[in-house]
Amino acid sequence: MALQIKTPGIIKTAQSADATGGLTIWNPTTGKKFNITDLIVSTDTAMYLTFYDGVTVLIVVYLAANGGFVSNFQTPLNSQTADNNFAVTASVAGNISITALGFES
Predict the structure, then answer these.
(1) Model confidence at 2, in pLDDT bands (50, 70, 90)?
(2) Which pTM does this prediction carry?
(3) What architecture does CATH give domain 10-104?
(4) Cα(56)–Cα(58) distance, rounded to whole angstroms?
(5) What's the confidence (pLDDT) of residue 67?
(6) Which of 13, 22, 15, 17 is nearest to 101 (CA)?
(7) DSSP string covering 41-90, please?
(8) Distance CA 3, CA 93 (A)
(9) Which is more confidently placed, 54 or 4?
(10) CB 4 within 8 A of CB 35
(11) Residue 28 has what DSSP assignment?
């Protein structure tokens, strides 16, 4: 079986001053799943962010004030169920910026 390499063909961005109530980053095409290959996050406030596949927690990231992170996933962060949104909630109000790169399958 030949190795199939997927390149990020989709770029999603989201910003919020208060994501404590939740923020959808990626709403995939009907019948599709999101697959995150890269994630870039910055914030001006110390907080933790919880990323979701629908209602299932995928990862939790703790960030310092004026901090951020970049993750290039060796294996894509895949949705387990078609039509689930990729979303985030913040532990406190504060400006966040998120860029997610990936593909749908």
Answers:
(1) low
(2) 0.90
(3) Sandwich (2.60)
(4) 6
(5) 96
(6) 13
(7) EEESS-EEEEEEETTEEEEEEEE-TTEEEEEEEEEEEE-SSTTPPEEEEE
(8) 43
(9) 54
(10) no
(11) P
Maximum CA pair distance of the chain? 48
∠ CA 44-93-33 to the nearest 5 degrees?
90
Where do the structural domains in the chain lie, given as residue ranges?
A: 10-104
Residue 87 contacts residue 23 (beta carbons within 8 Å):
yes
Closest CA to 40 of 7, 73, 89: 73
Q: Count the Cβ atoms, other than its own, within 10 Å of residue 79.
A: 25
pLDDT in tens, 11-60: 999 999 999 999 999 999 999 999 999 999 999 999 999 999 999 999 99
